[in-house]
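User: Hey, my collaborator sent me this sequence without any context and asked if I could get a structure. I don't really work with proteins. Can you help?
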Amino acid sequence: MPEKNQSFYDVLTAAISEFADTGFVSAERLAYWQEALKRAAEATMGPIHDMDEMLRRSMRALYARLVEQNGILRYHPGVARWTIQKLKPQLHLELDKRILASADLIKLNRSQSIAQTLRRFSGWSTSIPAGGAAEADKAKIKAEIRKPLARLPFEERRVLTDQGHKFIAGLNDIVATDSGAIAAGWISHFRQANYDYREDHKERDSEFLKRSGKPSLYAIRDSWAIKAGLINKGAGYTDEMTQPAEECFCRCAYRYFYALRSLPDSMLTAKGRAELARTKVA
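Assistant: No problem. I've predicted the 3D structure and written it out in structure-token form, which is a compact way to encode the shape of the chain:
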């Protein structure tokens, strides 16, 4: 077995050299190198608790900005700060839930990266005939086999970012549900430089819809305004499509609306317009 402190790169180099020289001669030698590569890969990744701590700091910082500092109110015009204070127990539960889910996902990604790397090594090594392959391009083979591990730091950063957007969406949903939101406008960020947006998400964007002359807001199906017949569904119901941040690496969000006067006139029914006129007079 290779030395305990050898890097994954060194262990992989030794494994490739052996199979390039001798070929696939026994299942025992393959198992030997798979175990050595697995141990070296796990050591290369560093302690999982370091990543867990980074995850917790990231989520808590996001929670502090949105909840403690009331940053979440930009998604909820008209909602009072005391509402956020009242909802803190529920919002903190969402924080705990998201931290656990994100930690599990990072562990799963690490396991999958190691498994993919071992499959690549096994696929290559078992293809070498007895006697070896003298002309093998070892540098190219090495690069191909280690790709899943080489991408892991990047993938873990993406997981942190993606889970952050899902966390924001979860917090927003709690506030919107408790505060009685009646409609929502989709924010797609499609104008943001280097953002790989989904085309259908761009077409849901409120500003994009407004400029296209289409209804720009989505109704919340079970809201008090729908039940009272005061508004129509606008561009559709929010439950008729995927939600912001639901799909992988989606950075979209909703901006919520709570009052009839905040909606475009086209979204009001005749009954809604009458009610709005009545409240203005009152």
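In plain terms: Residues 88-125 form the longest helix (38 residues). You can pass these tokens on to your collaborator as they are.
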